[in-house]
Amino acid sequence: MTKKLLVSNRAREINPSPIRKFLPMAERAESRGIKIFKLNVGDPDIIPPGEFMRAVKAYRQKNLGYAPSTGILRHVEAWQKYYRRLGVRLSRSDLIPTVGCAEAIGFALQAVADVGDEVLVFEPLYANYKSFAVMLGIKLVPVALNIGTGFILNSSKDVEKKISSKTKAIVVINPDNPTGKLWSEAELYMLETLAKKYNLFIIADETYREIRFSGRPQTMLSRKAAAQNVVVVDSISKRFSLPGARIGALASRNAEVMAAVLKFAQARLSVGTLEQYAAIPLLEHGKPYVSRLVKEYKKRQAAAVKGLKKIKGAKFVASQGAFYQTVALPIDNAERFVEFMLADFSYKNQTVMATPMQDFYISKGKGQNEIRIAYVLKVKELAKAMDVLARGLEAYKAACLR
Amino acid sequence: MTKKLLVSNRAREINPSPIRKFLPMAERAESRGIKIFKLNVGDPDIIPPGEFMRAVKAYRQKNLGYAPSTGILRHVEAWQKYYRRLGVRLSRSDLIPTVGCAEAIGFALQAVADVGDEVLVFEPLYANYKSFAVMLGIKLVPVALNIGTGFILNSSKDVEKKISSKTKAIVVINPDNPTGKLWSEAELYMLETLAKKYNLFIIADETYREIRFSGRPQTMLSRKAAAQNVVVVDSISKRFSLPGARIGALASRNAEVMAAVLKFAQARLSVGTLEQYAAIPLLEHGKPYVSRLVKEYKKRQAAAVKGLKKIKGAKFVASQGAFYQTVALPIDNAERFVEFMLADFSYKNQTVMATPMQDFYISKGKGQNEIRIAYVLKVKELAKAMDVLARGLEAYKAACLR
Questions:
Q1: What's the Cα-to-Cα distance from B193 to each of B118, B200, B225, B255, rounded to whole Å?
Q2: Which of A86, A317, B66, B258 gets the most CB atoms within 10 Å of its CB?
Q3: ipTM, interface predicted TM-score of the complex
């Protein structure tokens, strides 16, 4: 018999979100009247397309019933149209809407891996993958990419040597969170070839697909060579600035994967009915909005890079996409630095909230001096934030010397 | 190295939803012009309170950002007010909003049980628990309740003999889906006592809390003796006829459980922003709506019972709550019967869709002759449906004899 009333080990092992765990500290700073430039959460400040709320308000049915687990037909058709613009033809059963990309990530992982199985990831890594892996009993095996070499995967051997009999999949986030890296054609070809050779799935997280500062939006679904291996997880949260809508999707040409995902989807019944309808016009005609959005993020990237260049000792590779920038600072411990910024520092009653990157790594001890910045402020504000960050860093160094 | 590209074992093991898997067959029947009385899904036909869509339309913020993982403050406060009307004082951190009750069930299970751990359930059981258990690697151990004895738990020994060193929790759904059973004070006391004695959690699924045809709405949260053991999973889907809103909650006074659930909640980021706001007026002032709703379901229950009494060989205990009725029919295989009704039968171009109950059991071979009916039609329609069901049953018996 159980001796004590205890929560599960997985409940204990899972880390709090590195992006969200400092929120109480931020609330205390704000209650002291300090203005915080919040660069921690990828929560876009840009106004979403007006069509969305107009469509919500145009909902005329008297009931708000469950949507089909396969998604509302017109909503799925809108995703099909959206993908057709990317040159990809999907059948109705190749895609299932999800509660944001987060749910799609969980579905993808459990569709391909059992308890004890391994999934390869590139670190630094969007930290929530670690949480899902703990919940599902899956082991994430990290392949290290380094800021010093621009986070580039130089050799397929770096991946190959991590593959075991338990490896079931490789995760690739493109454009990448948290590094802002765009995966090159050579790298993607490498991953595709490995997937075929070792019979691995590729879980391609394309949440930030359109947000890239060069080249055209891509999807792994358009690659023919490993079509059966690819599972794409997707979202409208970033490209239409609608994270609160909780609309994502999972897409694959692998019928077995889709049959599994449908069963997972049935267990949780459905995705929000209103938002499925409201997302239709965006998926169908949202391209002009996205073009303007990308222009704006490109300006912000330039402003952030300009500001970061002025910070003594800061090392970074200018981000090529998404709206994140990984920065190595001349500090010992990024968590302590973030805490310092919120608790002990202000300049003209302002401070900056960034995300410490320790938790974006699986390997112990890595990322101790790195922070992630999300470009979720307008250029002018962002420039100010970079200045405050620079001043905070000097104050932190001075405080450490004391 | 993996020899083939295969989905996971859990993806294979999980059952398709018994409630949703016959939908393609229903679509085919409808395309032949047959009207189907759909008694399969717990998707209320009753119109939800107008305040909900009014609140959605009153959303005035320009952005639709992530909600906090802890829930929008005013939304959580509305849940607190709602529970206060049930005599329960919850602190802000005792409750976390979820994407429907479905997500709360997953969170509760993984908060208390690890891979390989056991959770006791009473069968027949709302089938989605089985899916979540497979996804999470948890073993559900069934305690049988029987239609012949009104699904009553007569002795705590029936539960005790199923408890092992791996048992972590007991699930109780009250009012119950699929039986419509109300758990008596004696039964709840039994469960509470066992939970204390063996240090088990009680996962109390109170989705149908108000929908009971006698007595007052209850919650396990009001029981003091095992306060630390109780985890309530809840939903607005049924009491406000809003399943498409995907708003639920998990509540517990156990701080460790809530800390775990917060981490799970952070991993999936947030619950729909619009619906959290829109649910506020219902949680605060929805009682009159719920009273009317319960009256309506009570009438329907009476109509269903009246109709079922006319069906030769049908055995059932009149449901006391929720809007479900388990019925044993003089048939060999309820799945085959449901298929027959959709594919081979119609009366005046009408048929009935019920849910076969095999998948509501864990023990093999049980429930072969049982169906679940959801009272999601108006009295007049329901009466017609019962008549069509009776005729369908006769036709099925005749077809089997041939």
A1: 19, 10, 8, 21
A2: B258
A3: 0.95
